[in-house]
Amino acid sequence: MAIERKRIKGSPQQQVKSNVNDPYKDIKKAIWAYFLLLIFEGALRKWFLPALATPLLIVRDPIAAWVVFQAYQKNLLTGNIYVRAINLIGVVGLITTMIFGHGNVIVALYGARTLFFHFPLMFVMGKVLTREDVLGLLKATLWIAIPMVVLTTLQFYSPQNAWVNRGVGGNEAGAGFSGAQGFFRPPGTFSFTNGNTMFFSLVASIIFYFWLVPENVNKWLLYGATFALLLSIPLSISRSLFFQTMVAVVFTLLAASRKPKFAGKIIGVAVGLVVVLLLLSQTEAFQIATGAFLQRFTVANEAEGGLEGVLIDRYLGGMVGALGRSGSFPLFGSGLGMGTNVGSQLLSGQVTFLLAEGEWGREVAELGPILGIILVIVRISMSLKVAYESYLKLAKGDVLPWLLLSFSLMLIAQGSWGQPTSLGFAVLMGGLSLASVNASAGEKKANYNEKPVRGYQNKYTSMRYKLSKNT
Question: Between vectors from CA 32 to CA 28 and to CA 36, what angle results, nearest 5°?
Fold first, then answer.
């Protein structure tokens, strides 16, 4: 009895608060670590720990594995049909890889890790993250965007042998990728330029959300991040970033059409952006970057058959072609991991596309037409589910899931899982989209077990319930 009194020492409210602890706080910390490593993993591999560039390639894998293990311990993934399907595909895929495929255990495990750890991580994020957690990650992204565009500017105007442009492992040949007019596409803190493109694509969807709901963010942070996005488009020399920003604009206009009160905000933002662009266009630095971007846009569009060809290639990504060629692949596939850069390096000694460049083509080639198409269907099904639920939230006035969907829709369905950075953004966006759908505006998910304090059930149970809902 003395022990019980000691345990509840203090006022009833203090005692209740001390017992209302987030059971998922460690998982949330791990998710933050996953997010930060996704952004800064390339910086470690290029500048700060170049000798560890190879092992750092999978630095997020142990985090994903630990989170998923904890989720199973807490029964967070029990009954999830998507996770069950993916796990079954992974198990069967490992067996067929060793019997009928390339037979390399390391390559097979490297390929299977996306199915066993990273894919389920999306659903764990959807279960444990509250609306406040999601907004915290989004605001952190905006804070990072401002120094990121400064770094991108330095990389754009610096020679490839400059320190800011060093490649993985400290390679002085540079990490930039071919651009236009003698300028290279800068990678930012990432190992390759696709990371910078996806980062600012995420920034675009976040910015448009906060312009519609500005009360949820510091206005100067929003101004700075918007300015960073405007600069990043020409500096990136990336058509993908431009197209993705346009997709975010379309989603924003659709969201605004559901609520007339957003119309004034949209007009104000549009006028402000035009003024900023006019001012920027008077600077020589912006003119140079814009000239390189426009030349890259024109030349690449002509090479790919015009704008229609670009859009089909970018947003269908060879999907139809992958399904059409499925009959030409071995029934049980060539083996998990063979279509990745790491797999090709281990199997052939060089980084090349051993199977297919497109994501769906890679999956079908690795797993075979049966398992590969099932995996594609699972991904499409999940993306459509998120899209449908995001639309339902939009109909109720919650625009956050809808704006995140502008970037996550294609990533979930056909974002590359073979490249670590692209995989990381696919997981991040899938998780944030699920969490934003599950945690509606003005609501918080029940993350806590409502167990009454021994001996005080009648007096304090209702107090604990109220406090836990507001924690």
Answer: 170
